[in-house]
Amino acid sequence: MIKKDLSVDFLGVHFENPFLLSSSPVDNCYEMCAKAFDEGWGGVVFKTIGPKHFEVDEVSPRFDELTKEGTPFVGFKNMEQIAEHSLEENLHDLKQLKENYPDKIVVASIMGTNEQDWEELAQLVTEAKADMIEMNLSCPQMTSHEMGSDVGTNPELVKKYCAAVKRGSDLPMMAKMTPNITDMIPAAKASLAGGAEGIATINTVKSISNIDLEKRVALPIVNGKSSISGFSGKAVKPIALRFIQQLRVAAGLEQLPISGIGGIETWQDAAEFILLGATTLQVTTSVMQYGYRIVEDMKNGLMHYMEDQGVDHLSELIGSANKNIVPAEDLDRDYKVYPKIDWDKCIGCGRCYVSCFDGAHQAITWDPKTRRPSVDTSKCVGCHLCNLVCPVGAITTGEKVMKPGRKGNAEDKQVESVRLTHF
C-alpha cells in the first residue's frame, strides 16, 4: 500500500490530513464528529453555533436533489439553518471532542447578528478549547437578514465582524465566503483587514433546483410553498474552483490560505482544489450520500496521485496549477487541434454528426451506408464538441496544428498543413 505524507499546516494548525467535515448537518453533535474522527477525517468544522438569543426553527421537508440519468445528488438543495442545539450543548460538545480526540482538529463555526454576538461567541468557543474559528458569513437561508450571505456581500460588515471576533479570541480564524456575489475579492480583502488569517470558500449557491409541474411549486414543498435556498454537490464545483482561482491570482492574495469547499466527492476533486491553492478541504454533500467512509477512498486516491506525480508531501502540490490559468485574452489564438477518430471504437451512432451540425460548425459529414462520420477540416474549428458527445470515447484530440499562414513557437514543431488523422 502506498504511503504518502497527507499532513498539512493551515493557519499555524497541523492537520494529519486535509479532509474536514464542513459546517452542516453531517457534524451536528458530538456523536457524529466522534464517528467521523474514528473513520479517519482530519478535522471537523462543527455545525455553525449561533447566539443564545437566536432561535432556530427548521422546516420540513428541507432537502431536494438534482439528478441526471438516475445518478443521485448531481446537485443538492437544502433549507438547513445553523445548529438547532442550545449554545450550552454545542459548547459542551466542542470541549468533549477536544478532550477525547486531542490529535484531531476541531474548528468552531460561529455566526452572530451584531458585533457583541460575534465577540462573545469567539470568546466562548475559545474557552471550549476549539483549535480554530470559522466565521460563517455566507449561509443563504437564514431567516434574519443580520446573518449569513446578506452579511458576506457587504465588505464593511465583513471587516467589522472579523475585528469583533479577533477582540474575543486569539485563535486562528478564517472567514467563510459567499458565492452569491459577483466578485469575492473585496469581501475577502475586507476579512483580512478585519483580522482573518484565511478564507473558507465556497458556501452554497442560492438556487431553485426543481419545480413540481403539477403543483407549480418549487421543491421541497413546505405546506404548499417553497423558497430560494442553498445548492451544493458536484454541480457547484466549477463555481468553487473559479472563485478560488480568482482569489489566488488577485494582487496581494497570491499566497492566501484557503479551505476549499464545493462539490468534493472523489480524490480527483480533492486534487483539483489543492492544485488551485486550497490547503484543507471541506466536505458535506458526498457524506450525506455515502457516509463518512468516503474519506478513506479520497485519502488513498490522493496518495496514489502523489506517487504518480513524484511528490512525497501534499504541500508540494498546493497552488501549482494557478500559473497555468490565464485571462482569456492571453490564450494562444494560433493554437488549434483537430479531432482524431479511432475506427475500432466507433459504433456508428451519429452523435458527433448531429451535435456538430446542430450545435457547432457543420464540419462532420455522415455516410448513411457505412455509418461513418468524416471531418471536413476546411470547416472544422477544433472546438471538440464531437469529442465530448461521443458515448464510447472514439474521438480524441489529434495532432496540434497552426492556423494556415501563422508561425508557432519553434519548440512546438507545428505544421502548416491541416489534416484529420485516422487510426
UniProtKB/TrEMBL annotation:
Superkingdom assignment: Bacteria
Any one Gene Ontology cellular component term annotated for this protein: cytoplasm
Known catalytic reactions: 5,6-dihydrouracil + NAD(+) = uracil + NADH + H(+); 5,6-dihydrothymine + NAD(+) = thymine + NADH + H(+); (S)-dihydroorotate + fumarate = orotate + succinate
Chain intervals for the UniProt region annotation (Disordered): 403-423
Segments traversing the membrane: none
Annotated metabolic or biological route of this protein: Pyrimidine metabolism; UMP biosynthesis via de novo pathway
GO biological process, one term: pyrimidine nucleotide biosynthetic process
Keyword Amino-acid biosynthesis: no
Assigned keywords, A-Z: Flavoprotein, FMN, Iron, Iron-sulfur, Metal-binding, Oxidoreductase, Pyrimidine biosynthesis
EC number: 1.3.1.1, 1.3.98.1
Group of enzyme by EC: oxidoreductase
Domain 4Fe-4S ferredoxin-type: 337-369, 371-400
Assembly information from the UniProt record: Homodimer. Heterotetramer of 2 PreA and 2 PreT subunits.
Family: Belongs to the dihydroorotate dehydrogenase family. Type 1 subfamily.
Name assigned to this protein: Dihydrothymine dehydrogenase
Native species: Paucilactobacillus nenjiangensis
Name of the coding gene: preA
